TrEMBL record:
Keywords: Membrane, Signal, Transmembrane, Transmembrane helix. InterPro entries: TMEM82. The chain crosses the membrane at residues 51-75, 96-122, 142-164. Residues 1-17 form the signal peptide. This is TMM82 protein. It comes from the Eukaryota.
Amino acid sequence: MFSLGSWLPALPGLAWGWALLDAFLQGESPQGWRGGGSGTARGTPVTRCCLFPAGLVGACAVSVLCSLLKVYLYIQCLNNPERQAEKDAIRAQWRVLEPLHVVVLTGVLALVGSRVAALVVLEFSLRAISTVLSLGKGTHSSQLYLLCQYSLGCGVSCGLSFLLEGAPHRTCNLALAAGLAGLLATYTRRLARHVCTLYELHSRERYCGVCILLLAAGHGIPQLLRNALTVTFTVADLAAVALINRDFLSTAEAVRFWTPLTICYTLLVIYMQEEPRQGTGRQPVYQTVLVRMGGLFILLLTVGRWSDVLHVLISLLGELWCLLRAGVMLEACWRQ
């Protein structure tokens, strides 16, 4: 397998450092590291879904989603004279929160275990299908994009880790994916900053290519996000099922896990159908997050491990952090 040590000088005193850095990027235990409750024997890889590189890619994916939605909502508010207050609120968001959001979300995704991340992905996929089927009842799809932030991060991390598991050049692939994701997130943040600062002037004067393109095709951003999220969650769902099933030694164990899980998710989907009737505002959204994570918490107390219970609590913090970060845009979606 490709490793950083193969590119670096063979200095005896630095051998442990190369092995540790390489294991950190790959999500494995270095040689001589004896794992504890989450590890394995000496020299055996410890596979986790969301270590730092995969978590960083997931956080960057969430950043790209938020930046593009910010561009779309800002343009929509700008074109509506009655929504100028919302436009000013979107523009007034602190710039320092954007990189801070990526850093915090990367840490959360790096701490969440593969089983809980996979369960979050599957739960959101069922909820998204239910929401799409009920769009005719008044559910807003733009709001769904903001509500999927944490699930998207888990999905990207799960899919990336699953696809790269056992790959011969995993370290290089993870580093490349993290670098490309960081560049994409940076440029979309710059795009959002440019739009919030100069779009009103440039779209009127017609001398900025980016703003002219957004003026002509900005309404297609939701469709672009819808297609990208469909592909992402399709891959993530397959990866999530595989990550969960590999822990079972027999069919009986799998049935004992999937049966209560199916019942729990069915009840959650039924509850989500009542969410639009609870009115708009932040309280119903936060209440829904607590119900969802509470259901997973109780389920994993019954059929999971103690580490899974801890990861559910960490996931709750991640969900709340994403919602707090997107509070202004959620308000704009509710009033759209």
